[in-house]
Amino acid sequence: RYNFYVSRMVGELAKRYANNSQLAYVNVCGPSVSGGVEANFNVNYGNSRKASPTYDQDMNYTEANFINTWKTQISTYLKLFPRLGMATHNEPGSFGWNDVNNTIVPYSDDEKLNTARTIRDFMITQHKAVKKKFPIIRCCGGSNNTEEWGKPGTTSDKPPNNTFALLLWEVREKADIGFEPGTVQLIHGVSEQGMQTMLDIDRYYNGRFLEIKRPDIINNTNDPEAMYVKPLKDTSDSMEFGNCLPWTCQ
């Protein structure tokens, strides 16, 4: 029933927006309560788990069912939005339902990453087959932490094996990468250099899309924060399609 109702709803959205030239892509959503966007095996947590502690069990969301539902939705979106790129999130989850012990348990890093990796790879393969071009593989939670993401300018400096950053690094030449800045925002007191580092990391991953929200860069006079203007403009220019990867630029 989930797939039926979601597909019907998405079909109605496609009638209105599928041919809208102003949309860069449509983000695929699946069975995640965090806005339906994270392609990781983490169906229920936080306030959602408090409201329904047995949600995962009631929905019969084993890992296989979770992955297969994501695959179904990816296939649905590909049919309904033939002219648009699409993206899925790659952020690992936290806790879930253990089918054997009937308890809430933390997932291991390997479980979380491998689940997201399976969905990601299906997305890339199917998108290329149907659309003949790269999908957007997008991350919620970009940062300026070089220990987590790797140091820009050093191609051998990949991210650690237990971070969701690795899920983007692995496909930086197989997909168009997108970032959301996460906590790299004016409201968190991020300096010009802090913003620049985050942007450098985005380009290091061959980032082509950057999701900037107004509170990220707008000051209390409702103007763009002056110190962010040049880093954002320079990065925007370098992200134009056709530009070389950062490590191949002369």
Properties at a glance:
two-stranded antiparallel ribbon, alpha/beta, 250 residues, five-stranded parallel β-sheet, single chain, 10 helices
Strand proportion: 5-15%
- Number of distinct helices: 10
Q: Taking strands numbered 1, 2, ... along the chain, how are they ordered across the largest sheet?
A: 1-2-5-6-7
Round the mean pLDDT to the nearest integer and report it: 76
Let me know the largest β-sheet. Answer: 5 strands, parallel
- The ordered H/E elements are HEHHHEEEHEHHEHEHH
- Regions with little confidence, pLDDT below 50 for 5+ residues: 43-48
Q: What gap, in angstroms, lies between the N and C termini?
A: 54 Å
Helix proportion: 40-55%
Q: Kindly name the structural category.
A: alpha/beta
Could you give the count of β-strands?
A: 7
Cα gyration radius (Å):
19 Å
Shape: globular
Produce the secondary structure layout.
Layout: H1 2-17, E1 25-27, H2 46-51, H3 55-58, H4 63-80, E2 85-89, E3 95-98, E4 103-106, H5 109-131, E5 136-140, H6 146-149, H7 165-169, E6 176-180, H8 192-204, E7 207-210, H9 214-217, H10 226-238
Parallel strand pairs: 1-2, 2-5, 5-6, 6-7
Antiparallel strand pairs: 3-4
